[in-house]
Amino acid sequence: MSLEYITQKIIDEANDYADDVINKAKEEARTISEEYESIAEKEYNQVVDAAYEKANEILHRTTAQSVKEKRINIISAKWEYLDNAFSSAIKKMCKLPNDVQIRFIAGLVQKYQRSDAELIFNADDRKRLGSEVVAAVNSASGSYKVVLSDITGDFSGGVILKESNVEANLTYDAIVTSERERLEEEVSAILFNESDVPA
Questions:
Q1: Closest CA to 129 of 110, 146, 148, 151
Q2: What CATH number should be reported for the domain holding residue 132?
Q3: Can you give the pLDDT at residue 36?
Q4: How many Å from the N-terminal Cα to the C-terminal Cα in the chain?
Q5: CA distance 11 to 140
Q6: Residue range(s) defining the domain that contains residue 188
Q7: Is the dihedral of CA 82, 85, 89, 91 positive or negative?
Q8: pLDDT by residue (tens digit) across 142-168?
Q9: Same domain, 155 and 75
Q10: Out of 14, 44, 108, 118, which could bridge 149 as a Cys pair, Cβ 3.0 to 4.6 Å?
């Protein structure tokens, strides 16, 4: 497993919700995943090696400290790396190819849309992805349509779906935050062997 894997896992799980309206998305995403497999493996090894090296440095640096102080330092280091892992997931989602992000965002909109709506992007994504996401949603939609909002948001990536006075937060930040609690134990297991933390 790797940070690339974690990012892809978050994306795949969200895409599963939209499979009923974009049947080909899963197969295309799998093709893209295979293209990045060697890169993901290399990055995984680098991240895990760095994590263990950092943990070992802390252990050696605190040999004169009490067991309790060692545990506090190890736990602190663990949470720092967990924060970095999830922050990295958001950054990597934002750097996915345009066509992948267009399919992904369009799928989310189609899943949650219940009436005619506006799509709010950040300033960069509005220019880069906005019109194509709108076209993708409208070409697949039945009763409801979307338009590109003149408003831009202050978030990393993804979209806010605005229907009248109701907004659905489909930003990457919100997706990762909602997944974090469920995935935290798995990510922790990737970065740290719990047996390395003194009792």
A1: 148
A2: 3.30.2320.30
A3: 46
A4: 27
A5: 20
A6: 3-96+176-196
A7: positive
A8: 788 999 999 999 999 999 999 998 999
A9: no
A10: 118
Task: Give 92's Cβ-side CA count (13 Å radius).
Answer: 21
Query: How many residues can be counted in the chain?
Result: 199
Looking only at the bridges linking them, the beta strands covering 158-163 and 166-171 are antiparallel
Structural contact between residues 180 and 151, judged by C-beta atoms closer than 8 angstroms: no
Rounded to whole angstroms, the Cα distance separating 90 from 172 reads: 6
User: Is 18 in the same domain as 67?
Assistant: yes
The residue type found at 38 is: S
pTM value is 0.59
Residue with tokens 């958001």: 90
Share of the chain above pLDDT 90, in %: 39
The model's pLDDT over 73-90, given as tens digits with 9 standing for 90+, comes to 777 777 787 788 788 889
